[in-house]
Write a structure and sequence with these properties.
The protein is α/β, with parallel strands linked by helices. The protein is built from eleven helices and eleven strands.
């Protein structure tokens, strides 16, 4: 390879500092070493990187192009060095977090901001899953940590599982839906006569789950909770929604809350992970998510994200 990272480092320093001499001072090298590095790079590439016709060397178009793309390589190399160092001290290169679709993504942003402030160097990959999808992602190796997984964990024995809290659900319809005009509480027979809206389980290996559906009921299946909310506002069907998602639309009159005979109003959700694979990044998230105030914020029970100590 004719272009070395060291040569790019020298080229970058010259450009930022304005001269070969200033670059030498920054890099703690004698000026002749800086000059030699650039001359050798020009010879190896068979291009002129600096215009030396004036009193001050200026980058040619080729030099500008090399510097622009070379800085990407320098940043990538620095990032790689940092990640390798962190791996050696127990920080994962990447942490894959599966989040149940019940949890609005923006509720995780303050948590991520805290994590990035600690500058661990670990890359975070978020994936949204529905119903049994979080459990499936963990068991199949697509995720290292799951947040807000609903229902009971599959019988695996290899997972660490902790209660995180619960979501309160309400049965809602659009104001012009036929069920909106019926007296409370609605019976199962009342609901069975009308289409339900359901978010599709994202499990790939586990048996798909459903929630709040009646046997034989016509169903519109959508990909996400956000789509389910929109479909019910549009009057395409009825169904249960987390109160966190439904409350603003109920207050605005876009949805009507209905009582249902024998309805179950809460669903428990969990944190889960593979304990043998717990590196420092995973432990960081577990420590923070075990904080009751953080749990309440993530699950929408509180509108204020708690400050961290320090």
């Amino acid at each position: 390879m004719r272009i070395s990272l060291d040569a790019l480092l020298v080229l970058d320093s010259i450009s930022r500092n304005g001269s070969f001499a200033a670059a030498g001072e920054e890099l703690h090298r004698v000026p002749s070493a800086i000059t030699y590095t650039i001359q050798k790079l020009e010879q190896d590439l068979e291009v002129q990187l600096f215009d030396r016709s004036g009193h001050r060397a200026r980058l040619t178009d080729a030099g500008e192009a090399l510097l622009r793309d070379g800085r990407h390589l320098l940043r990538a190399a620095t990032d790689l060095e940092n990640r390798v160092k962190h791996v050696a001290t127990g920080w994962e290169t990447e942490l894959r977090i599966a989040v149940d679709d019940l949890v609005p993504t923006e509720r995780l942003f303050p948590l991520l901001k805290d994590f990035y402030r600690d500058a661990s160097g670990t890359r975070i990959r978020l994936a949204m899953e529905v119903l049994g999808g979080c459990w499936d992602a963990l068991l199949s190796g697509r995720a290292d940590l799951v947040i807000g997984a609903p229902g009971d964990a599959p019988p695996a024995g290899l997972l660490a599982v902790e209660p995180m809290g619960s979501f309160e659900f309400v049965f809602v319809v659009s104001p012009d839906h036929p069920l909106a005009g019926l007296s409370d509480p609605l019976s199962a027979q009342d609901i069975l006569l009308h289409r339900a809206v359901s978010a599709a389980d994202t499990s790939r290996s586990l048996a798909p789950r459903s929630s709040g559906l009646l046997d034989g009921q016509d169903t519109l299946t959508v990909p996400t909770m956000r789509a389910k909310v929109s479909a019910q506002i549009a009057g395409l069907g009825a169904g249960y929604l987390p109160l966190l998602w439904a409350a603003p639309h109920i207050a605005a009159g876009r949805l009507v809350k209905k009582e249902v005979e024998g309805s179950k109003s809460k669903t428990n959700v969990y944190l889960a992970w593979h304990p043998r694979q717990a590196g420092k990044a995973l432990k960081w998230f577990l420590d923070r998510l075990r904080d009751k105030a953080v749990q309440q914020y993530v699950l929408g029970e509180s509108g204020t994200y708690p400050p961290t100590a320090g």
